[in-house]
């Protein structure tokens, strides 16, 4: 005897409908976010770094343009403050060891000032996002990038500490991503975005 195929009752289908709609909207949002990250990272100088950096935040799979702006600034800020702490620790170490590393101290002091500007600019960028202001994002990202660029330039001609070299390069790339994200909003500053690209090329 052929087995009967039972069909769900209309009531059961009706009860399942909200769950199905929720699943559909979740998948749709995730696909849109993936397309958004793809759109941003295709404009960055390092696609793989861009994707890896943005997806380091758990909000990225469902992020819209506004959330992605927060994420890009947040990742850049985390990098800048981490490098700033490293610079501070190195300066303290030199002070303890004496004046035999005076040249290194002067270079690190330039880096310290550069990262103070970078962190301050990224805090301002975050505050602007809180007030739903987007047109300053690219300019502030450019300012933060130039702080890392100044630090990199301070070690021109000699190899910088590996941690510092990576911190500088990563921050400049992250600020570039912030500049690209700024282009998603109307009234962005194209000059600042171009400036960040030039910094990455020159230094």
From TrEMBL:
Keyword hit for Disulfide bond: yes
KW Signal (keyword) present: yes
Alphabetical list of Pfam families matching this protein: PMEI (PF04043)
SMART domains, A to Z: PMEI (SM00856)
Keywords from the UniProt entry: Disulfide bond, Signal
Stretch forming the signal peptide: 1-32
Domain spans labelled Pectinesterase inhibitor: 32-181
GO terms, molecular function: enzyme inhibitor activity
PANTHER family: OS01G0111000 PROTEIN, OS02G0537100 PROTEIN
Record-stated family: Belongs to the PMEI family.
This protein's name: Pectinesterase inhibitor domain-containing protein
Native species: Salix udensis
Taxonomic path: Eukaryota, Viridiplantae, Streptophyta, Embryophyta, Tracheophyta
């Amino acid at each position: 005897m052929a087995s009967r195929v039972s069909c769900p009752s209309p009531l059961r289908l009706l009860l399942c409908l909200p769950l199905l709609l929720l699943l559909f909207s979740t998948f749709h949002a995730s696909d849109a976010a993936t397309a958004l990250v793809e759109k941003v990272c295709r404009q960055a100088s390092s696609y793989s770094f861009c994707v890896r950096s943005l997806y380091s935040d758990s909000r990225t799979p469902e992020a819209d343009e506004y959330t992605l702006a927060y994420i890009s600034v947040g990742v850049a800020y985390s990098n800048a403050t981490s490098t700033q702490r490293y610079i501070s620790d190195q300066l303290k170490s030199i002070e303890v060891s004496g004046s035999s590393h005076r040249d290194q101290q002067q270079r690190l002091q330039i880096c310290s000032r550069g990262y103070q500007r970078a962190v301050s600019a990224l805090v301002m960028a975050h505050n602007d996002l809180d007030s739903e202001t987007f047109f300053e994002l690219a300019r502030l990202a450019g300012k933060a990038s130039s702080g890392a660029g100044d630090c990199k330039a301070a070690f021109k001609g000699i190899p910088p500490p590996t941690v510092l070299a990576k911190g500088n390069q990563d921050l400049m790339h992250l600020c570039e991503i912030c500049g690209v994200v700024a282009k998603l909003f109307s009234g962005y500053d194209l000059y600042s975005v171009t400036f960040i690209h030039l910094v990455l090329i020159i230094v």
